[in-house]
Design a protein that fits this description.
Blueprint: H1 2-15, H2 22-43, H3 45-52, H4 59-65, H5 69-79, H6 86-111, H7 117-139, H8 153-175
């Protein structure tokens, strides 16, 4: 939490309305940083274990599920998880994704207060795209060991543009 959360905190001087707002927005900024880092970890499990020999999933959660680094490495190399481990791994990944989604929700209030508006839009777009990676992991059947979840470019564009378009359309309709 310290490393990922500090990235969000380091951006506050550029995005907080005033220096006095920074302490109030710090929790939201840190929550977003941790959520995005957790999403990166969940997206890259297979690559990390295959290419680096590293597992960034929480060791205590892996131990509780009875999943070893060697089992993850074998699965990432295409051997799949043993049938007894697959449901436990899926549950572990879903639990961590639920934590990331709760952190994205926590960050939302702080994003709404950022200035300039471009900063708000950019941060919110990144939040939506990263959050959608979690849905891509689900769509891949929780296989983040042999498949890398991603958000296609067109989907990213929709995540960036469509909410603003809908809001403007609603405002125009309300003004009539």
């Amino acid at each position: 939490d310290l490393v990922a959360g500090s990235v969000g905190a380091l951006m506050l001087p550029f995005l907080a309305p005033t220096p006095a707002d920074r302490p109030r927005l710090d929790g939201s900024a840190r929550a977003l940083g941790v959520a995005m880092q957790l999403t990166n970890i969940l997206r890259d499990v297979g690559e990390d274990v295959r290419q680096l020999g590293r597992v960034y999933l929480p060791a205590d959660a892996l131990a509780e599920a009875g999943i070893t680094r060697d089992a993850l490495l074998a699965a990432a190399e295409g051997n799949g998880l043993p049938p007894d481990l697959a449901p436990r791994y899926r549950d572990l990944v879903e639990t961590l994704m639920a934590r990331a989604e709760a952190l994205y929700d926590e960050a939302e209030a702080g994003i709404a207060e950022l200035v300039p508006r471009r900063g708000r839009w950019g941060i919110r777009t990144a939040q939506r795209a990263y959050r959608d990676i979690l849905n891509a992991v689900r769509a891949n059947g929780y296989d983040n060991l042999t498949q890398r979840a991603f958000v296609p470019f067109r989907r990213k564009v929709r995540l960036a543009v469509l909410p603003g378009y809908r809001l403007r359309r609603w405002r125009l309709a309300s003004a009539r």
